[in-house]
Amino acid sequence: MVRWRTLTGLLAAALAAVTAGSLTLAAPAVADAGPATPYVVGGARAAQGEFPFMVRLSMGCGGALYSPRLVLTAAHCVGATGTNTSITATLGVVDLQSSSRITVRSNYVYRAPGYNGNGKDWALIRLATPVTSLSTLKIANTTAYDNGTFTIAGWGAAREGGAQQRYLLKATVPFVSDATCNANYGGDIIPAEEICAGYASGGVDTCQGDSGGPMFRRDASNAWIQVGIVSWGNGCARPNYPGVYTQVSYFASAIASAAAGLGG
Ligand code: ARG
């Protein structure tokens, strides 16, 4: 119910963006952001180069560079598996209007098998040209990192119902247990497939347009590792409604085999 409403909202936003011919990137962005200005919902601007693997997708979603040719995103951001040259990925910049941005077209979409709007919210987009100048984000393939404090980032709305952002925003959010999250969402969570994060008091969260982007943390070697994919939530940053993310560790081997099948 909650999930359906959120996904529908995204589709509407994506359709509006497509219809408009471009995303609302030129949006009035943020006239002089004071230190207390809420971003991503409760975050701050990311520095150029801070998260080199962050990808903006033209349908109004985020993604992470998984390999030079593959972007990991959410299933609800894409259409069915098959040839797809309609998506443009923007990479290498925090400012989507920067002249140093890299833009690459898609040539194929692989959507999680069995995806039906409930769980399994992951997909791979293959780029027509490999991007070798940016570091990739490795995915967690054990549950070892499915806890602690996570970083979230994206060009989505900085508040519920707000505009898409020109500059990449970031924030950190604490892990929320499946039990708490399921209690918050009245049993709508799929514990094996989803991982939640946020403050009980709300205030910091991903939001519309951040979908598909990564939730990540440091691993034992201090490298960034992806533990989640922005999936859904009830509104944004509301108290006792944490963000719900695809639990990457659960799908890691499926993602790796799909990636191999797409040429790596
Ligand atoms: N489904 C949304 C999107 O398409 C992401 C929602 C995330 N919501 C949240 N409260 N964390 O962009």
Explain what this protein looks like in three dimensions.
The chain is 15% helix and 29% strand. By secondary structure, it is of the alpha+beta class. The longest helix has 19 residues, at 2-20. It starts with a helix and ends with a helix. The relative contact order is 0.21. The model is unreliable at 4-38 (pLDDT under 50). Arginine (ARG) is lined by residues 6-7, 10, 156, 205-211, 230, 232-233, 236, 243.
In short:
This protein is α+β, with helices and mostly antiparallel strands and 264 residues long. It has three helices and 15 strands.
What is the percentage of strand-forming residues?
25-35%
Please give the number of β-strands: 15
Spatial strand order of the main sheet: 10-11-12-15-14-13
Shape: globular
* Distinct small molecules: arginine
Helicity range? 10-25%
Count of DSSP helices?
A: 3
Overall mean pLDDT stands at 89
Specify Rg, calculated over alpha carbons.
16 Å
Unreliable residue runs = 4-38
Main sheet record: 6 strands, antiparallel, barrel
Instruction: Give the termini separation.
Output: 36 Å
SSE order in H/E notation?
HEEEEEEEEEEEHEEEEH
- Structural class of the secondary elements? alpha+beta
